[in-house]
Amino acid sequence: MKIRFAGLSRRQVVRGAACAVLLGLVACVGGTTNADIFTPWGQPRGPNPAFARQVVTYPTHERPGTIIVDPYSHFLYVIHDAGQAIRYGVGVGAEGFVWSGRATVHSKQEWPDWYPPPEMLARKPELRQHMVQLQSGIGMKGGPDNPLGARAMYLWSGNKDTLYRIHGTNEPWTIGTNVSSGCIRLTNEDIVDLYNRTPIGAKVVVFGSANQPPLRSRADPFGKLKRSLSDLLNDRSGSN
């Protein structure tokens, strides 16, 4: 005997419920390419819990204390011994994909000043109202409203500045996303933690696209859910 709910077959009910669950979970976790995600009340959402700081298993030949930046997966790792690492979620600006390789932490700053490049000021002239004359040029003095956040670390390769930065952010909801500007950003809480763990001279490895594993081997938080939903949708026992 076929069971119908408000004129709908069991198959239609299961399909609707499955789609609603999947869409709801995707909405909760959010995407990894759009940093401008807001709640229905117009307020920015908090940091994505999927990118919270945690200790993870991370087999590597790098020495303890080495920082590994994986911009394509939106994670940064500090290597510990015994095959473990502290993993931090990161947001990646356009400059975060430009350079890859090995470097060292050349200098560190608390509440760093920000000097936007001339092309950014030309593109966004409204920024000038927030700029003042600083020691190194026109910029924004460090503080809670500064886009570089609470801390910054500057990477050099040999005697050359890579122009690659690891810094904080006053936009924690952008962690786990690609954003238009900046390098590698962490929440202010995480950058302070990383800053305190990292001495001058610490080694840093930044992955390029060639370092990425095949797509199907990466972690997929929705993989099992998608397969189970597919099984439900293809369940012939509820067919019309």
Description of the structure:
It is a single chain. The protein has 240 residues and is of the alpha+beta class. The protein has two domains: 4-30 and 218-238; 49-112 and 148-207, L,D-transpeptidase catalytic domain-like. The chain is built from four helices and 14 strands. A hairpin with a 2-residue loop joins strand 1 (4-5) and strand 2. The longest helix is centred in the first third of the chain and has 20 residues, at 10-29. The radius of gyration is 22 Å and the shape is globular. It starts with a strand and ends in a 7-residue tail after the last helix.
Topology:
Elements: E1 4-5, E2 8-9, H1 10-29, E3 54-57, E4 67-70, E5 75-79, E6 84-89, E7 91-92, E8 101-110, H2 118-123, E9 132-134, E10 137-139, E11 151-157, E12 160-167, E13 184-185, H3 188-197, E14 203-206, H4 223-233
Parallel strand pairs: 4-14, 12-13
Antiparallel strand pairs: 1-2, 3-6, 4-5, 5-6, 7-13, 8-11, 8-14, 9-10, 11-12
Number of helices: 4
CATH topology type of the largest domain: L,D-transpeptidase catalytic domain-like
The CATH architecture name of the largest domain reads Beta Barrel
Q: How many domains, in number, for the residues?
A: 2
- Within CATH, the superfamily of the largest domain carries the name L,D-transpeptidase catalytic domain-like
Spatial order of the strands forming the largest sheet:
3-6-5-4-14-8-11-12-13-7
Q: Describe the global form.
A: globular
Query: H/E element string?
Result: EEHEEEEEEHEEEEEHEH
Helix content: 10-25%
Mean pLDDT: 78
In whole angstroms, the N-to-C terminal distance is: 11 Å
